[in-house]
Amino acid sequence: MAYKAGPIYPCNPATARSESTKLGVDPKGEKLIYTNGRAVIIRDLNHTGLSHAYTQHTRSATVARFSPSGYYAASADVSGEVRIWDVTNPENNLKLAIRPLSGKINDLAWDGESKRIIVGGEGKDKFGAAFFMDSGSSCGEITGHSKPINALSIRHQRPFKAISGSDDNSIIFHSAVPFKYDKMINTHSRFVRDVAFSPNGDLFASVASDGKLFLYDGKTGETKGEAGREGGSSLMACSWNLDSQSIATAGADGIVSIWDASSLKSTQSYTVGSDVQSQQNGIVYAGPNSLVSISLSGVLNIFDTRESTSTKWRTLHGATKAITASTLSGDTEKEVTFYTGSFDGSIKRFDIGESYGADEGRCDEVQGTGHTANVVAFSTDYKGKVYSAGWDDKVSSIDGQSFSSTSLPIKAQPSGVAATSNAIYVATSSGLEVHPAGSNSTFLLSKDAVTAVAAHGGPNSDSVAYGVGKKVILSSTSPEKELATFEDSKGDVLSLRFTKDGKYLAAGDSAGRIILVDVEEKEVTVSSRWTFHTGRIVDLAWSKSDKRLASVGLDENVYIWDRKKVAKNIAIKNAHPGGVTGVSWLGDEKLITAGSDGIVRTWIVPA
Amino acid sequence: MVSSSLSSGVQPTQECLEKFQELKTGKKLSYVVYGLSEDKKSIVVLKTSEDKDFDTFVGELPEKECRWAVYDFEFTLPGGEGVRNKLVFVVWSPDDANVKNKMMFASSKDALRRRLEGIHIEIQATDFSEITKDAILEKALRR
Lengths: 607, 143
Known about the structure:
The complex is a heterodimer.
Chain A: E1 4-9, E2 24-25, E3 31-36, E4 39-44, E5 52-54, E6 61-66, E7 72-77, E8 82-86, E9 94-98, E10 105-110, E11 116-121, E12 128-132, E13 149-154, E14 161-166, E15 171-175, E16 180-185, E17 192-197, E18 203-208, E19 213-217, E20 223-227, E21 235-240, E22 246-251, E23 255-260, E24 266-271, E25 280-287, E26 290-295, E27 300-304, E28 314-316, E29 323-329, E30 336-342, E31 347-352, E32 363-365, E33 375-380, E34 385-390, E35 394-399, E36 402-409, E37 414-419, E38 423-428, E39 431-436, E40 443-446, E41 452-456, E42 463-468, E43 471-476, E44 481-486, E45 493-498, E46 504-509, E47 514-518, E48 523-526, E49 537-542, E50 548-553, E51 558-562, E52 569-572, E53 580-586, E54 590-595, E55 600-604
Antiparallel strand pairs in A: 1-55, 2-3, 3-4, 4-5, 6-7, 7-8, 8-9, 10-11, 11-12, 13-14, 14-15, 15-16, 17-18, 18-19, 19-20, 21-22, 22-23, 23-24, 25-26, 26-27, 27-28, 29-30, 30-31, 31-32, 33-34, 34-35, 35-36, 37-38, 38-39, 39-40, 41-42, 42-43, 43-44, 45-46, 46-47, 47-48, 49-50, 50-51, 51-52, 53-54, ...
Chain B: E1 11-12, H1 14-26, E2 31-36, E3 42-49, H2 54-59, E4 67-76, E5 83-92, H3 99-113, E6 121-125, H4 133-142
Parallel strand pairs in B: 1-3, 5-6
Antiparallel strand pairs in B: 2-3, 2-4, 4-5
């Protein structure tokens, strides 16, 4: 077979300020389910490499839940579409696709028999709907609210009941099945953020932006007690422990608290932080002793509730926004680091390689001050140092796990960066800046808007290739001389890559064409054969032996070209929804790609 | 920061939704009239009735005060195809009512209206000539 998909290293859940992030967990407590962009991610809490992404939604997905039986998952998106699909096989066969609401769906709940689903959100004339999961036909109505519904829950025991919490500060208690309005509960004075029945059905809870947690009788809806301070910080989410004796809450003050259900006193709490990025937006119990919460920054916190110390816990990282650039750094194939940068300036690193064993794919933040705006490009100088260029008009360098304290300021908006032992070359909208190593002076090699740059280091002089509009210009640095210009590209040159020996140069453009230049002969050897991409090329990478070239672009495809057999190629179609933005080879047969979906994917492409 | 600038913060009571459900499903109640409570802080049920007569219903609407109402409108399809019932939401805002009253009603309307699912027709009337059987019939037959 031409290629095989390897493990994926997923993005973290999408978060937004002052909005709850819904986290779901499978009945066995092993896997987390959440959404980010168009993807629904099923993430194994203990093995990073065993994660799975479902990308069939055409609009941004908002919530996903496993069925109580564990066989299906239901996910909903901003257009009101709900997709119910099989989780037991990797093809995720679709069971039902339906649009019960005409607007964003904020929450979704399964009934105890895995037969019915209720959704809540904002529609044109209604805020909730109830339907059967196999036929899609209605099984009642979820009515009574005057503002969008934020959360729903269904009692799994008879008599069946349902609750919905909304921005209108009220909770509606519904009888089920068929779902019918029963009564309105007005205990909260601010937006109701989350509601949940206890697993045994005896009680249900609600948390709201007024900082209060209320408990009610599960059968009658009668208020049983309240906790929390008046005027306290918003409680964004709640989750019952499996034994129904305690409930955990996630607060906008950055504190995760566990409350005892009978005494309504806080028995344990974890302070994640007091800054805005530490605001807790979602929470779920994964096992009797395992509590998972998500911070606004996108970091997943996994607390072991048996441990009495509440200052250290496990964290799971991943990209949270679309990845705009990436690179691989490392000498041996067994232990490398893959860096990804996003449009908000965040950079994450992934440990990849056999020597990491079961921990392969572990993601972490790069410590220190990085970029504050779009990261456009990376470059490695093969000595272990990684350079990143961003739209905050600077080039930062990363040494292993953290940013260096110094950064290089650049005079205009960068679009590419290339580093050799002699200098750092930055392609900017006002020219090609050259920053020689060990010197503070910079000079311009070209004054035109440069769209891409690549450099091949030599002992004294470097060969530099840069793109100006549709032209590829090849230069040497000392002596400073323009060696050749190639005009075979049909669009603006967006990506350039030399082979390790500097003998060949590949150039990808905005029209999807890749040209191959023989540097010594100074001629274009492949001009119109490598034109299978239907959109702009975003990144190129040569395999270890320089025999194969991988290209990725906005058309969501990855192509692998062979320098010796120019007529053939291997295509990986629709690798990342939204576009593929980065590619690197690990050896000669393993590919690592990153895309606008925030996911890092690996592929095996046998030679 | 509690609610949007368009709504007044006034909320309907339990009874409002209960009577609506009764009218919708029970098929006994013919109309429910809503208004503001004495202290103007909530929306309350002012009258319910099983009387099907349209003129009796219109008679419940005062000349100088606003009201909201839900009326179970019964009509025959043209061509003698049968009798149908549709729920009508009436926003009664007479020209002779004082401005303060009209403002309260206009800004509180959504808090009640959005909670009532299953309404087919909405009528806004500012005087008795706008709330005739014909006007409602025209809207009922349109869809």
